[in-house]
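In response to the reviewer comment on reproducibility (Comment 2.3), we provide here a single inverse folding case reported in full, input and output, so that an independent group could reproduce the run without further information from us. The structure tokens appear first.
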């Protein structure tokens, strides 16, 4: 069906039945987007889709599912009120002003860059990320999962409100001073396993590890 025909159908439905014109159709066809268009109530499932980009200043009230999609980049000003699921995508970096209230799943991605001051309310899952060598300053997360990653350095001022999972992080051999871990620290088969619990706790001072050190 031709673009103009579809446009007329959507406009008719919008006027008669108060149904919004689909955001992706308007975006892909270069139609102007309103503030109302950019606010998605509830969840939005784009997993396994051929989507490559999304419009700037997009606000998802619930979860945004993009796993196994062809998404190449995320828009500036993206806000997700729930979970943002990006595993098995080709995402290499995140925009500077991204906000995710709950979990952010970047496992099995070629992610290389995270913005400074990133705050994730739930879990930041970086499991099996092979190209991310360091994390940004000012990072604050609920749970940080770096299991089987190639991470080499953790930033100063890192704050983890629950679990810090560093299992099998073989390239990580030091913890930064000032690290704050309010839950447990998992170091099974990592480059930190050679240190005693006391050495690890002393290493992060004036920071702290409140929970157990799991080996």
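Designed residues, in position order:
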């Amino acid at each position: 069906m031709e673009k103009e025909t579809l446009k007329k159908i959507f406009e008719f439905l919008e006027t008669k039945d108060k149904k919004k014109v689909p955001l992706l159709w308007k975006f892909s066809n270069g139609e102007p987007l309103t503030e109302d268009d950019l606010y998605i109530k509830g969840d939005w499932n784009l997993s396994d889709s051929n989507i490559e980009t999304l419009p700037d200043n997009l606000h998802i009230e619930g979860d945004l599912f993009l796993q196994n999609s062809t998404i190449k980049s995320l828009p500036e000003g993206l806000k997700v009120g729930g979970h943002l699921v990006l595993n098995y995508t080709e995402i290499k970096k995140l925009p500077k002003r991204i906000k995710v209230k709950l979990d952010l799943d970047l496992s099995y991605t070629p992610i290389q860059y995270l913005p400074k001051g990133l705050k994730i309310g739930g879990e930041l899952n970086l499991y099996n990320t092979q190209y991310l060598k360091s994390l940004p300053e000012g990072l604050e997360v609920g749970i940080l999962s770096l299991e089987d990653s190639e991470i080499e350095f953790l930033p100063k001022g890192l704050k983890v409100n629950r679990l810090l999972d560093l299992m099998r992080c073989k390239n990580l051999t030091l913890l930064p001073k000032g690290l704050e871990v309010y839950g447990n620290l998992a170091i099974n088969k990592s480059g930190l396993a050679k240190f005693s619990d006391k050495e690890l706790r002393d290493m992060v001072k004036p920071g702290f590890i409140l929970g157990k050190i799991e080996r």
